[in-house]
Structures are given as structure tokens and as C-alpha cells.
Hints:
There is one protein chain. By secondary structure, the chain is an alpha+beta fold. The chain has 17 helices and 16 strands. It is about 40% helix and about 20% strand. The strands form 3 sheets. Strands 3, 4, 5, 6, 7, 8, 9, 10, 11 and 14 form a 10-stranded mixed β-sheet that branches. A hairpin with a 2-residue loop joins β10 and β11 (about 295-300). α2 (about 35-40) packs across α3, α5 crosses α15 (about 455-485) and α10 (about 300-325) runs antiparallel to α11. The longest helix is centred in the last third of the chain and has 31 residues, at about 455-485. The chain starts with a strand and ends in a 9-residue tail after the last helix.
Amino acid sequence: MSLIQISTNKKFTHIRKVVGIHPVIQFFIDKLNVHQMISTYFPQDERLKLSFEKSICTLVHNILGASSPMYEIADWCKRLDGSCIGLEEGESQHIGDDRIGRALEKFYNGRHKDFFFRLALRAIKIFKLNCSSVHQDTTTITLSGKYESWSAMEMATYGHNKDHRPDLKQLVLGMTIAHDGAVPLHHQVYSGNQTDDTLHVQNFQKVRQLLQHSDFIYVADSKLATLSNLCNIQSFGGRFISVMPRTWREDSEFKELLKSGGVSWGTLLKKVEGEDEGDTYFLAAGNYQAKGFKVLWIRSASKEILDAKSRAERLRRATIELNALSLKLNKRSFKEASHIKSKADEILKRHQCGSLVGYTLATDREYQKTYERPGRPDPRAKTKIKWKNVYSLSINIHDENLKNESLCDGIFPLITNVEDKGPEEILQLYKYQPFLEKKHSQLKTWQRITPVFLKKDIRAIAYVHMHVLALTISTLIERTIRLAMKKENIKTLPIYPEGHPCPCPTFYDLQRLFRDIEKYEVHKGDEVILFPAELTPLHKQILRLLGMPLSAYH
């Protein structure tokens, strides 16, 4: 159903149907052949009034086009033109929260892993994705509500919550994207207490199986850099780029060398302001190794500034809390030296200032004359002297340690076994890692994957899979229009509000641009007058860049 307005003379019925960005989404769903793949890997029930694949694809439209996805989906669907989301006449009335929930259960219990494997193969083939390097990272999916019985293999439990909600249970989502357009290739949902360092070997094998070769560069953060992980990848002919952990002996050795002035730096890469975040990178001269692998020591000018600001802020907060502690001495729980030192050490440890800030706890003795017996004292009553310790806290900054630590600002070590690329290329490959973090952010902001309020465990996990499917489609839309702009040498498009130029359109920029597109029907008895969606020249240009026919909106 759509929004129906009846005129005052009751002779005309005006029907408004929202179109928006949905024909674009449906075009890419059809291009990926999602319907056929779902019908291949999931059993069909001919008795259903709405097929399973249409329920799943409707949810994808809902995730990408609704302000509050998944919830009140029936009301959301009433405003839409059903044909633009792949539904036939009358099928929209069968959409509801319970139907979508049962579809999620069926998706989880079916061959969803095979479906995503085939989807990735299809995307690589149709969109000609360059998979010479891939990037992997994890994020947490926070669950709200009370799950009394949890039967799924992926256990919701407490862990290191990246949403800063340690009071809530969570799942862990691991995702691997291609360096070409940040398109998701593989993902996996894990239990909430899963650690990153144990995932990489299995994930590398999954990507290797998908690409049917090992000649790709596997990029991940420092959790990848364990000796067993690196040796395992290399044993299969794989290549990797990661950050060497600070706990390795080679890290402290290099910093000691740096503090002694034994390191010279050369300019490695300059980024122009406006093209990307302005920054300059320097490379330490010399050949460095750790555990038998090559290490590149790099200094970032912008990271150097950020490290200095971070340290100054940590010092400021630590000194403020220590000064506040000094005012509480000799009262309540701070009458004993052990309690005072424990609190001071906890403050320094929390702000990571143990080597930068010191303190001295001074002790004085004072006495107090008291009477031996309670009550009103008599002039001849005997008295006794009671001694007690009085503590005072003084703070001092270790200037020498502060100077030595500032010499290490902005540096980070990349560990790799890539031999056919220079340091500049290796750095640029690693610096693509934040694009994966932006995809995780997109899941939690634009797509609103969290918090998850679904009552059944397998529905909650299947809902995470649906968001990855929606993310894949939106990312392919972004990649397609950006490549077309580059091919036609189009620098910007006036997509931003008030027609401001946009150099890199995102899916949500396009969604905002298309959100007011509607079409209308006027019914007068048996006569129907159609008013198709009106497209501006900018809309038509975008559809042309996406390779879509205008008929998709007619």
C-alpha cells in the first residue's frame, strides 16, 4: 500500500508512492543476481505468499533506506512503490516484522556461508575487483536486552567492547575487504570474547580459498604480528603487512638507539593537503629485522604532533588527580601510607605516566593529649599522649624521561615479508587500513546495526549478516560512481546540500539526493492518470555514471 489522499469532492483518489534511492539499490541487487543465489542455497516453500528471497532483499532495502531499520518495517513499506524494491502488486501487504524475523531464522539455519562465498565471487567477476591486497579487522556488535537462552554457536558474552559498553554483552564481527574500493570479500561472526590474534590464520585460509591463490598481500593491525601467525602465512606462500607489537624486544632496542642519536631519517612520502590528510612520512635508514622478517621504522609528522598532545593531556590529568588526592590525605580511607601509595600508583598507571611523574610521600608525627576515662574531665584526671602519622604528597616531573619519550613521538614499525615492493608502496598499502575502520563505523552509524534488540539469538546473528550484505551493495555503488567520475575526468558533482561540490560521493550522499523522488497516480472512476518520477539533469547524470537506464525510475 502507498499513501492515499482522497480529494474533498470524493471524485478523485490521489496515490503518492515514494521511490527514493531504491531503484538504484535494486539495480545492483539484480546485477549481483542475489535472488537466484538465495533460491539456490536456501530451500523454498511454494506455499508462502511472499518468497524468501524477496523478504531478504526487502530487508536490505530497509537497512539502506530507513531511518530505523528492521523495526516497524510494515509501516515503512506502505509508503514505498513496491516495484522499486522488487515486489509485485499486492506483495507489500505481506511484509511484517514477524515475516522478516522468520526469514532471518531461515537464513541463519541455511547455507549462508556458501551464499556469501558465491556473492564475493560474483562481485569480483562482474565489477572486476583487484584483490592483490586485502585488509582485515574486527569490531564489536553490542547486544541490548536479556538473552536467557542462547543456543547459537556464536556466544554473546562480555569482552573488550569497542563501543565502550562493557556492561553489555556482545558479538565480534571480523571483516576482510579488498584494497580496490573497500568492498567486503569475507566476514565472520564470532563469540563476544574472541581475541583477534587467533582469527587470522583461519581468515587467511578463507580468502585464499576464495581467490584460489596465495599471491595477495594480507594487511592487518598488530594482532596479526605473532610469530605463529606470520610463519603460517608465509608457509603457504602468502605475504603480509602489519604493525610490530611494542612488547617485542626489537621495539625497545630501536628506541634506545633512537634516544642515543644513532638513527638518521629520510623523507619517504609526502601527502598534499586537500588530496588527503596532509602528512609527511620519514623512513629510518638501515636494515632492521624482527623474528627473521623485515621491519620498516617510519615516523609520521602528524602522529608526532598527536603523540605530544596526548602525552601532555595525560600528564595534565595525572597531576590534577594527584593534587586532588593530596587534599584527601589523613581522612577516611587515606590514613595509611599503603592506601595512599596504592591510589597514587593506580592514577599513574591509568594515565600511563609511571615513568614521567614521580611523587614523594612525606610523614610527620603529631600528638594529641587525651584523658584515660570518658566523660567530663576532672582537673586532677590523668592524661595520655596519643601519636599519629600525618602524610603529605609532593609531585615531581621527570624531565629527562619526558625528553627521551618525546624523541619517540610519531614512530611506528611495519613488519612485512613483501620483497617486490618498496617502502613507499608498503606504507601506502598499510595506510588503507582506516578505510576498513570506516566501513565498521558505517555499520554502526548510517546503517544503525547497534544496538540489536532482537529477542532470538539466531535472528540477531542473521541480522548482522544482512547488514554486511547491505554494506557490500552500498560499497559497490560508491565504487562504481567514483570510477566513472575518474574515467570521464569529473572532479566533483554538486551533490552536497545547496549544490556544493562533492569529490567522492558516498552512498548516503546519493540517498539524500534521491530521497524526494516520488511518483503519483490519480484515480477517477476507472480512469487512471500516471505521473512518473521527475528526474533532474543531475539525477540523470548519476544514473548514467552508474550504468543504469532511466527506465528504472519510470
